[in-house]
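Data deposition worksheet. Section B asks for the primary sequence of the deposited chain exactly as it was used as input, without tags or linkers unless they were present during the calculation. Section C holds the resulting structure in token form. Section D is free text for depositor observations; keep each observation to a single sentence. Incomplete worksheets are returned to the depositor.
Section A, Depositor: J.P.
Section B:
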Amino acid sequence: MMIRQINISLALAAAVLAGSLGISMTATQAGEVSSQQIRDQLKTSKTRSLSGARAAISPEDLATIKRVSRTRSLSAGDRNQIAAIAAKRPTIDLEINFDYNSATLSPRAEPQLKSLGDALTSSDLKNAIVMLAGHTDAKGGDDYNQNLSERRAEAVKSYLIERYRIRPDNLVAVGYGEKQLKTSADPFAAENRRVQIVNMAEHDEATN
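Section C:
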């Protein structure tokens, strides 16, 4: 009984301390993904065949990836091409917070961006070509959402270049506006507002 009372007291004390410091006890449940989770997801078996060998990226797809990685402004055709390639590559969605109706990263985005930066500079993903795809919900007009998603993807790219010294041509920033809703049954849902990270070509593929 005494041990149980001590354990309860410690739990209550921890909860009070967390509350006084403004710390959420369920922060990891609020959408934040760890660096290791990002690494694991971008190295999943989606890139491997049934035999266990990694499915090689086609020369045509690789040429497209390298071309768009050096292109500042992507056309609708470019976006469609790399979306088709991305559908075959390992991917993960992240909740990266921005100020309302802007492409300015909010302070709340810092932990998730740090996890992303740590993952992309890890031995697993260093020098891979990665797509940063911005997505919005269906609020607002098509043109507005397209522009906003592009600026948000570029904001994440700039952060990774400045803070983690990732080469600009290893990051492809692209916006899809509201065209690729994650939850189409609820087009205004928060989970539609996301940044999709796709491992478009791993280091050994990109250098071929």
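Section D:
Residues 37 and 119 are 9 Å apart (CA to CA).
The radius of gyration is 20 Å.
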